[in-house]
């Protein structure tokens, strides 16, 4: 239905009908208006599977949802760094939604992984906003290619579960723009999700649902979002204020209570009815887009989609460590140890929990191997060491050629609704790994977890595989990698620190009471660890392969450019090993001078390519203004500082293979207004002002050397040239009055400052 017809339809609605459209009919449906033929549509939880429930359902999934397919969670899909693969996953999910008459799937979730402790990190993509927005954009594109809407979430700065419905995320403007808004920006601007879900929390003291700055000024006016904004379930605080801010749809139903508040506000004149009309138009635009593009022939093929989940999982599993142990020889005697070998943990708890129609375990996938034995080893339900299970596992490991331990985090350690209190795995698992490594030198650990964990046993095992939470087919995917049927190609979308205390948010997470200070600013994840030159367990972007790759011939199409130009960067990558494999090439940019506080390097693009043994491919990136920019709070815009910038190509953030420097010139001048408190050093950048200051310095005894003043050697030792230079650089202009011996008056200085400011404005 076109915009004119939608406006006409809204004009026929009563005030009560308009208000009713602004809240759900129940947990999962919008309201219909039978009199005008306006249909109801269904939304459903996602984002890594279809969690469709009936009208009696509950948000957190205590009641069953339909049997469906659980794909890898966000923590895993981000590790693929494969845009095309995630787009295919989206198309599969979109088709499932069409078959089940679901119009909008709630996801993807792109909140930044600020701390490893966030209980919902398994749903989120990365500590890096580029990875988050690129992966989200690919999933959105795939789903919406099937004419199913997405709801990118949780907007904004929802990075913890502790007090998530009341806590305020207190973040400075630059950090919001460069990290937390940037995770949404690319996907919203390019892939245009049909809906956005606002978060529970406050941003700098104002609830997300009533935050006009972000819901309207940024989201709609700046980014061009043209869908509707829905609340997270129960996130509405003040319905009228929320509507004014840009929140269209309250979910779930408020049983008419908040609808009545809207009608009363319009009748009393407190709410402009045009705001309500516009909200209805934005709602109906999406409702009719969904209804008019329903595919009645769509079929949900569970088995076919299970196999798709397996193929995706194979590219989400990261090989972290390999000391000539992997791939395994299927003919040797192998012990599979650990509860997760038989019953894998493949998804997180909460609103994204999928009712999987089947689950493939590693034991099931490898069960036909003649030399395979299994021992449970632990029961982490209560995190207690059970001697009988442990002893059985140690015996099995000691009598085998290789031990593969399946471990990780149980649901009790990470889930929606609560944050982790530490970064450790269960004690019973850590102890088991230590004991098995003591009797079996050929030990491999396979991890099932949604966030980084500490690995006190890392030096005692030969191999580590990070399986993340890779969906219902994870067991088949893991065994394919263990035995070399698939060459691992995933890399970490987050840093694994050595210990929790190393994390930049450690001192302020999760905050005090209802306030959380994001004191680390832009230094999130690798931006912090690299700036501090800190050792980490595994760096951002790290991941091994069963083959090897070399990088060469880095070229840039220009060595100097304006910020209005684009820069083409090319590099050749060669498979120098004996197996076909995929490599993720990462492009980082870093400013050289340090004129402003910035990370050492920031990921600005990436590409994943497949190479046969001996094959070379050239990868080309195009960098625009944003690749060199930071958010300037004076300009309220992205700004490129004139500087030399390092273009770095790496296999991880700590494995830079080649590098070049380019000069980027700014075409935008930052306006400068001088005051009495402006320092001499800052003013010296203005030629006219610098001349006046030099003249003042020549006539002031304060800046004369001890020799010029005829002072003793003792005075010269007390007042060095370096001290004088520093005093001058950091002295406020008002100091000219104190140290001029009466030559500079307040009136004269203010007249000079006015002249310099006029000069700045006219430049």
Automatic annotation (TrEMBL):
GO terms for molecular function: beta-glucosidase activity. Keywords: Carbohydrate metabolism, Glycosidase, Hydrolase. One of its GO terms (biological process) is carbohydrate metabolic process. InterPro entries: Cellulose_deg_GH3, Fn3-like, GH, Glyco_hydro_3_AS, Glyco_hydro_3_C, Glyco_hydro_3_C_sf, Glyco_hydro_3_N, Glyco_hydro_3_N_sf. It comes from the Bacteria. It holds the Pfam family Glyco_hydro_3_C. Residues 583-653 form the Fibronectin type III-like domain. SMART domains: Fn3_like (SM01217). Belongs to the glycosyl hydrolase 3 family. This is Beta-glucosidase.
